[in-house]
Amino acid sequence: MTTKELRLPFEMTETDEDNVVFVKNISRSGKSPKQIRDIKANLPTTTIQYFSDEDFERLKAIEAKLLLELESSNPKKNTTFLSMLKRFLEI
Amino acid sequence: MTFNYREIWTILAKSFESSFKWKLWKWLLTGSLGTLVGALTLGEKIFHLDPKRSIFFAAVSVAALFLIRFILIFFKESLKYFHQVYVNSVYGEAIIILKDNFASTHYYRKSPGHNDEEFMKSMMLFCNGLKDIYDKILKSQTSVSIKVPIRDISVSEHTTMMNLTRDTKHISRDTQQYKEIKHTIIGNTPFSYCLSKVVNNSKEKAYINNKVNETENYNNTSRECYENGKLPYNSELVFPIVPIFNETKNNSTCHGFICIDSVKYDAFKSRYDVAILEGVADGIYDMISERNNSINNQN
Hints:
The complex is a heterodimer.
Chain A: E1 10-15, E2 19-24, H1 33-42, E3 45-49, H2 53-73, H3 81-89
Antiparallel strand pairs in A: 1-2, 2-3
Chain B: H1 5-20, H2 23-29, H3 33-40, H4 42-46, H5 51-110, H6 116-138, E1 142-150, E2 160-166, H7 176-180, H8 189-199, E3 207-209, E4 235-240, E5 251-254, E6 257-262, H9 271-298
Antiparallel strand pairs in B: 1-2, 1-6, 3-4, 4-6
Helix pairs in contact in B: 1-5, 5-6, 5-9, 6-9
């Protein structure tokens, strides 16, 4: 199943290795490139800071380790008849 | 939960008192003598009863009216009280969970340098804490995830979002197929909606959809992972990881999104649902910023 990509109300204005900066999409009709540049220069921007692939992979490895620790430290659930009945009845 | 007898007694007394505050009593008891005599002899005039029986039935009717009114008021006041107790316990519980989560955030911020293990612990704590909170508030199973932008070959609006972490009960959603899909901002309505709100400096930044599977023009790249493209949830609340107060009005930074979904329809209706998430997003924003600064200082 494919999803449609929509025209967004914002566009990329600059990018480098660590960030991408977005600015509001403005109507270009009847405006010269200079006018568009001037308008955009005064608009508020939003920066998205990337996680690098290596950094992300490292964090995911830490997550996996923490999950294992969590699993082993969790006490096993009480399985007596009374506790099961209580869980079933949710009382 | 302990039974608060004192509170029940207060409700009883309040209901008893309120039962008298009725225009009918004023009309019957403190009105003219003619009204009272007319009411007492109603049975005599309509049902041809003798005067004594008429007065007796009139008194019984008045007592019955009082009793019905008393019971109804008591019922209403009790419902109000128990609802209040319930609301307090749910949101009180939320405060306690968030206190623990934020303690971990503050600890991370106060520690010099950056410790990735502490960072991930805090992120996981937030996801699990939020899940506990929203499970209780919505009385349904919820799933919480933190999505962050990953540098991709093709940057721009096609920026890819990946799961930094999820609540531990829904880790199984991160299948190999899910990981291989490019979850772009443009390909996901909630992300593009939230980001456009951030870019436009809007006050309301949350994306709420209480019928995701029935919404037209709703894009979600995760659909591919599920049979017939039907998502395993019906309601969704997404909030950008941005600060509540932005120092610079002209440039804001977004570190990703917090996503909460619920199997329930029309789940996210309370204004508290967004407020809780907004506060948590602010905390997570601080942690990611702190980590980024620390990494930049090291380099």
